[in-house]
Amino acid sequence: MELPESVMIVEVGPRDGFQNIKKWIPTDVKLEVIESLIAANIQKIEVTSFVSPKAIAQMQDAKDIVSKLLEKKVNIELNALVPNLTGAVAAWNAGIKEITYVISASEKHNMENVRRTIEESFGELAKLKESLPDMKIKLDIATAFGCPFLGDIPVEQVIKIIEQGLTLEVEEICLCDTIGVANPRQTGSLLKEVLERYPGVEFGLHFHDTRGMGLANVLVALQNGMTKFEAAIGGLGGCPFAPGAAGNIATEDLVNMLERMNVKTGIDLGKLLETAKLVKAKIMSELTGHMVNVCSVL
């Protein structure tokens, strides 16, 4: 089996995971988790979201989170999600140099998620690029593998979103399995189409483990040459359209699988498990990751 020698893992738990938790997580606890992730040698973290507190109250300390991390001079890449130009400006002013901007491949999901048509979302992205020319932008294509309202998404619709994103010169594109419906055959098919059309574009992948196929999808992606994956500590994240379902693929499970296949991540699995246990003790007692719950031997 031919696999890449190494991969980049992007931790999204502090944003995608924490935002789904209704109970307030103290800022110092969030920072403790982020610093623990850094100690495990995670090199890139999506640390927060610059969004209205009315929309997501859990993210109201975004500025404080970034400020305190910058004060500590952490030597990693910090990313924040933004829904619009206002959020992007706030992120830039706080010291963030790279943002995530989400557009869905599904018109219905995009409207439900951000109250805009796809065309309007690209219009906002164009304004963002013009106003903040030095900001690096990662475009997340939500529902790239399936929509909770429309079902299967045609590959050509995903291609259309990619084309529009590249026209606006986004630096990276992440294909997201927002509700965890992707299967390995579908993953291979979509990646074959996308990678053949855009050999020079930087792509990442964001899988959920809603139906237990997250790591299987990663394996197929590796076989297709993909080397960048997003994951969340402990499997945080959830799915608003499938209550009780598993969330993102667990970072520690992903690292364990990759390292056992001799695909290097540069991450200390032992320290990562300590972080997962910290999350379990201080934030969420029931995590969906496997390693944190059942494995005592690395």
TrEMBL record:
One of the GO BP terms on file: ketone body biosynthetic process
Query: Which one of the record's GO molecular function terms can you name?
Result: hydroxymethylglutaryl-CoA lyase activity
- Tell me the domain of life: Bacteria
Q: Does the keyword Repeat apply?
A: no
Domain (Pyruvate carboxyltransferase) spans 7-273
Q: What family does this belong to?
A: Belongs to the HMG-CoA lyase family.
From the Swiss-Prot or TrEMBL record, give the protein name: Hydroxymethylglutaryl-CoA lyase
